[in-house]
Amino acid sequence: MFETLILILDSTVRLATPLLLAALAGLYSERSGVFDIGLEGKMLGAAFAAGAAAAVTGSAWAGLAAGILVAIALALVHGFACITHRGNQIVSGVAINFLAIGLTALLGQDWFRQGGRTPPLSGDGRFTNIQLPFAEALRDVPVIGGLYSELLSGHNLLVYVAFLAVPVTWWVLFRTRFGLRLRAVGENPAAVDTAGISVTWLRYRAVICTGILCGIAGTYLSVAQSAGFIKDMTAGKGFIALAALIFAKWKPVPVMFACLLFGFLDAAAIRLQGQEIPGIGEVPVQAIQALPYILTVVLLAGFIGRAVPPKAGGVAYVKERT
Amino acid sequence: MRAGQLPRWADYGLMPAINVVAAFLVSGLVVLLIGENPVEAVRILVWGALGWNEGIGFTLFYATNFIFTGLAVAVAFHAGLFNIGGEGQAYLGGLGVALACLALDRFVPWWVTLPVAVAGAAAAGALWALVPAYLQAKRGSHVVITTIMFNFIAASLMVYLLVNVMAKTGSMQPETRTFEAGGRLPLLQTILPGVDFGSAPVNLSFVLALLSCLLVWVLIWRTRLGYEIRTFGASPGAAVYAGISPVRITIVTMLISGGLAGMMAINEIMGSQHRLLIEFVSGYGFVGIAVALMGRAHPVGIILAAILFGILYQGGAELAFEMPAITRDMIVVIQGLVILFAGALEHMFRPLLLRLFGILAAPASKPA
């Protein structure tokens, strides 16, 4: 029983990582007043770029760099449309999702001719699992040993990066001048403008932060978790991340717990496939898969707390002119 | 015409045209990037879609889907709402159609089944839009987010139903049994004498789609409700002062929108597949966004945009056959670019046009 629990928690961590990175990515953008339903597209684009670059160069790091670059490029398209040209942020996000799905499949087939996949990665082409110190020595210690050596140790670098990004994001947003301004620009851009700070430049920096984290999230999918890019491999993770972001009311630490919860549901769904639970019977996998979305809708309905988005979210800022 | 404003024809005709042309130019660049000739690609695409009878039939078949999903998005646009959940609403619409057909197809002819199926499709689609609509109207939850969530919930629900409840006995396929003649719409070529669309499944739903366009036009521009919808969309504040209930308009508009999205299933399920199957919506709901944006949320524009996307879908299939390097994913890229240029970047060329018109108008308006 304990072993099973550890195993489920272990896969929870693996499944929550891309959600966490993408949700934190969305946090920067949305806190600055730029809604982003294009997390999915940026992740997918990054996953493809990372898989392709890692396959060609044989280096996971080159993959990471390519993934981040592509995600930033897509984030800048979003910024160009929504910040510079004051376009509709939802429409722009939808466009980016389409572009990513189409371009990754099209270019993937053209470049590698493997039905949209990138060539399988091995060795240095992937981020391999890291054994934390003393993991082997402590393995036999009851409870703590299992927790440490199975749950905490033995993940790849990007998993640790993702969980490290939580306190970093908290610190950046709530303890730095940049973070204060970023949050202010999402609540009341006119005030920030009055203080002589460029709303445009601040929001562009926010979407670039989003690009970086989406890039890491995509890279994790194709270069760390799997050994190569598969067509449409994000499969809605960007939207679950968005749900997690809303579920956590746009706050970094709750975002982590929301992602862990949704990751746990995913892990449990895989584990429970076709199994009977005593007393309940067979739980349909689809019900568990739909649970993150249902929970988010229930939260949005205001039945468990209230999710209030940043006040200026979704609205382009128009500088007053005389 | 005031300074800083474009003439109406430029605003409603020229600007969208420029935006779409920009989207296609960038698409051409993508084709170049793959190392194919864009001009040749366009030639194959247009010929594949319009050059032969069967091609035209398929083009109109796809256009039927896009008219329904496009109208769904457009109606919501008029009330300032963004219904991104067409995908899920159409999926549920399929359930409504299938239930009607499965119940009636063995007993009555198709023209008795049709009204029931239409009612089923519209009701199921509308029902799936009701919860997001209610939450937007009463609790202020953003309709975009809730409709996205409902797309995923719909997908899970339908997989569950098709695998565990509705699958035909003795089959591993997640699909219902095939409908008998009473659950099949006649093809257009059997209704219209002298027309031959080959094996293309374009059917009576196309007429239904055109009829829906007319009804939507009447609704939006010729009825009291339509006026209220447009007022609410243009200025919610003013609408409240005019005695228009935001709750009522939001819910009613979303119900109409969801119902229209659900109607798409008539074409796909009753007109072509003749059974309910998994993932039959396959992105048509999302294309509706591009169609509505391109058609400027006007039924006539939507018909034109839907036919254009029909051409892209059918021609794209031919293109993938003739130029294997350009897979059908190219269509998705073009969709993305159309949404980007005609939607998010719709005002990008406005300053340029304003300046151009300013230069052109300057000599004429100079005082003598």
N to C succession of SSEs of chain A: HHHHEHHEHHHHHHEEH
The proportion of strand residues of chain B reads under 5%
Helix content of chain B: over 70%
Q: Number of helical runs of chain A? A: 13
Termini separation of chain A comes to: 70 Å
User: Total helix count of chain B?
Assistant: 15
- The CATH class designation of the domain at 60-306 in chain B is Mainly Alpha
Please give the number of β-strands of chain B: 0
Categorize the overall geometry of chain A.
globular
Q: What's the architecture of chain A, going by CATH?
A: Orthogonal Bundle
Radius of gyration of chain B equals 22 Å
Measured distance between first and last alpha carbons of chain B: 20 Å
| Main pleated-sheet profile of chain B | none
Strand order of the largest sheet of chain A: 1-2
What is the CATH topology assignment of chain A?
ABC transporter involved in vitamin B12 uptake, BtuC
The counted number of beta strands of chain A is 4
Oligomer: heterodimer
N to C succession of SSEs of chain B: HHHHHHHHHHHHHHH
Pairing-aware structural class of the strands and helices of chain B?
A: mainly alpha
According to CATH, what is the class of chain A? Mainly Alpha
Summary?
The complex is a heterodimer of chains A (322) and B (368). Chain A has 322 residues and is mainly alpha-helical.
Write the layout of secondary structure elements.
The complex is a heterodimer of chains A (322) and B (368).
Chain A: H1 2-31, H2 39-57, H3 60-84, H4 89-112, E1 129-130, H5 135-138, H6 144-152, E2 155-156, H7 157-175, H8 177-187, H9 189-194, H10 199-225, H11 237-247, H12 252-272, E3 276-277, E4 281-282, H13 285-300
Antiparallel strand pairs in A: 1-2, 3-4
Helix pairs in contact in A: 1-6, 1-7, 1-10, 1-11, 1-12, 2-3, 2-4, 2-10, 2-11, 3-4, 3-10, 7-8, 7-10, 7-12, 8-10, 11-12, 11-13, 12-13
Chain B: H1 8-34, H2 38-50, H3 53-78, H4 86-104, H5 110-139, H6 143-165, H7 188-191, H8 205-222, H9 224-234, H10 236-241, H11 246-273, H12 284-294, H13 299-322, H14 329-344, H15 350-365
Helix pairs in contact in B: 1-14, 2-3, 2-13, 3-8, 3-11, 3-12, 3-13, 4-5, 4-6, 4-11, 4-12, 5-6, 5-11, 8-9, 8-13, 9-11, 12-13, 12-14
